[in-house]
Every structure is written in C-alpha cells, then in structure tokens.
C-alpha cells in the first residue's frame, strides 16, 4: 500500500503540472513535424521504389527524436528540480520518508507518461512520412524495432534528466549537463581527426549509441548494433539513477 500511495502521489503531482503537458505535447508535435520535413526532402529521383531507395526512410522519418529527446530531458529534470527550487521536497519527504520509494515512483510515473507521448509521436511521424515519401518503406520487423526503440530512447532520456536533477539538486545545472551529454559529445565525434576516437565516441556516447536502434538498413556499417547501442543509453540512464538515488538517500533534503 505504501508503494501504491507513493506512486499515486507522484502521479498526481506530475499530471497536475502544466509544464508536463506542454512538454509532452511539444514532444509529439516536434517529432512529427521534423520527421515530415525530413521525409519531404526525398524525391522520386532519389528514391523511386523501396528496393531502389538508398536512404533509410524509417530512420529518416524518426529524425525528430533527436530534437524531441531534449524536451523529455527537461521533463525529467523538472519532475524533481522544481521541488528542490521551491523547497517542497521537504514536504514530500515528511509525508513519504522512504526516499527510494519516492524516486522509483517518480521514475514510474515519468516512464508511463513519456511512453504514451512517445507512442503518439512515433506513430504520427511514421504515418505522416508514409503519406509524403515517394516510396514508403515496408511494414516489417525492422520498422517495429526502430519504432519501439525510439519510444524507449525518449523514456531513458527522461530518466536521465530525473537522475541528473536528483544528483545535482539544481534545475539549470542538470539541464545544461544533460544537453551537453546528449549533444556535445556527438559533435566532438565529428570534429576530432582521429578515426579511432570517432569510432569510440559513436559507440559509447549515449545519443549516437542509443539512436542506432533506428537504423533499418546497412547495419554492418554502424559503430554499434541497434540493441547494444540502446543498452549503452540504458546504462547511462539507469546507472546515473542509481547513483542519484544513493545520494538522495544519504544527503539532507
């Protein structure tokens, strides 16, 4: 009953925050709009038929995930960062002293909401792209893997935001560090001259590794396979959540 009560409290707090719905709505809209814009860049000259098309049209349709994951990161940060900034975290811990229970309940509530928004975002992006693409890709296992994996990417990035905010106890600092982890490291992999380090960063940086799950063609050319890449992102999200949870357990609020 304690776990159920804790989850209900965190679910109520999260769903009554206006910023939650703004961020989730923006995640759906941005994913669909960027995917449609990317799909419209292909013409019949470039992609006459699905078999003659050299572009990974499924991955292209899901391009918006690269941007909308930043909104999920902010959602995760605000879920506990707002409580630290207003001091209401002390009220939360007075009502629910079990700190691991509070953190796990926040993670579950965030995961459910982000999954629902992720499903809408991915389905919207794929449906719009199929209307726009000159040669829509076949609906097969690779597409389902890319679609389901993209939803998991959004959930894991949300948990990464929650973890960083729990660890740093500062909203601005957690957002800055999270955006740096997601976007600066991939940029560095394209700037440095060493092919060895480029390959290492593509394999072990959370965003390029996690987004390898979207690839449906030329898998042999990837720096890391789709599922191992998603595992790297999961290790970042869950690993930092465990470290943040330990700090949350030991420090004063």
> What's the helix count?
11
Structural class per helix/strand content?
Answer: mainly alpha
Low-confidence stretches: none
Radius of gyration from the alpha-carbon trace, in angstroms: 19 Å
| Biggest sheet features | none
Specify the overall morphology: globular
Query: How far apart lie the N and C ends?
Result: 24 Å
Strand content: under 5%
Q: How many β-strands, per DSSP?
A: 0
Following the backbone from N to C, one meets helices and strands in this order, namely HHHHHHHHHHH
Structural write-up:
By secondary structure, this protein is mostly helical. Helix content is 77%, strand content 0%. Helix 2 (18-39) packs antiparallel against helix 4 (65-86), helix 4 runs antiparallel to helix 6 and helix 6 (99-132) packs antiparallel against helix 7 (141-168). The longest helix has 34 residues, at 99-132. The radius of gyration is 19 Å and the shape is globular. It starts with a helix and ends with a helix.
